[in-house]
Amino acid sequence: MEPVQQSQTINQHNASNTQGVKLNENSYGPFKEHNEVPKPCWKIPSFKEKQSSGYILFSLYNGPEHHASQIANAVVVARHLGAKLVLPDIRGTKLGEKRDFGEIYDVKKFVASLDGVVQVAKVKPAEISSVKATAVRVPDRVSKDFITATIKPIFSTNKNLRLATYFDALSMENSKETVDSNAYQCLAAFGSLKLQSDLLELVDSMIGTLRSMSQKMGGRFVAVDLRFDMLGKKRCHKNVVSSERCYNAEEIGEFLNKIGFHKETAVYLTQTGWHGRLDLLRDIFPNTFTKDAIVPAYERAKFMGSEGREYEQFIDFNICSQSDVFVPAYPSRFYASVAGNRIASGKTQIFVPAEKTSEIANHYLSPYIARKSHFAHSCFCV
Q1: Is the pTM of this model over 0.90?
Q2: Domain locations along the chain
Q3: pLDDT of 135-163, one tens digit each?
Q4: Which of 198, 234, 258, 282 could bridge across to 288 with cysteines, CB 3.0–4.6 Å?
Q5: Is it true that domain 3-34+196-381 has CATH number 3.40.50?
């Protein structure tokens, strides 16, 4: 076959695999040419309620995939109670390990985003420093009815509450509540958190490196949430949320190849450090990288050393949220939260591996996108 004919055949094959998704003429594979960024559907009423003397305290924990929901709960509770919100700290994976909010997130952005919604105390006020706050457990996406019936009576007696959000499932299904009642949840979950400048610059630099490694693909790359510590989890064998199972490195490579991604496509993996079992994926896609390979040398000690391991999850979360295509190797809260961020930015190409014979990429589109089953769809209008 002549080279020109071969190129035309490849283009025709990939075009058919995307069911009408228009491809850039310089790229191969099911990449969308443009992402339409949706607009927020919510409207926040002006701040009229008189503030009480009480405070809502809380911590962020269990990684960035939980933080937006924890923020949203705290904001909703504080708003309905008329309480002030104390800037949270961030708990690490080890007992007693914690960071200031500003070490990870932009404090000015956070406070400004909530202007007119709740008042935020950047430091714990002196008048409550010696007072132990009453602990209250609240469900993810707490409702106004729950706040009125369960939390408000406690707040009436104990003006300082410490919230702890609990999560019942991996999914983030679309809420049945109206857009208006979801307004504070939407604003807090998708409009308040931004990485602090140093960490944001690092993520941007790493994304730039991935795009340069994928120049033949128009600078586009695929991010895959694949970590070997997750593959042995119980949910990999039987997941109560969906029929999805876990896929290893070789299966991910075969999947990406099957749905039409060119071998020159850059692939980013959330795995920390290279592992021999990743070689089978790199055999199919040579431009496969873990974060260790693309972190600038001068940032390695700060963000990848023994003192910086907690930063890695934020790097992964943001790269997966911003990649051109995202592929989860297993069902998880990480996948669900990344999907929410991608819906908010219009990056809706999320392909979930499945035991199908189809070579059409859109046949593997995430249910969060295909069925609009994600909570984020109630927050944004295309």
Answers
A1: no
A2: 3-34+196-381, 55-191
A3: 999 999 999 999 999 999 999 999 999 99
A4: 282
A5: yes
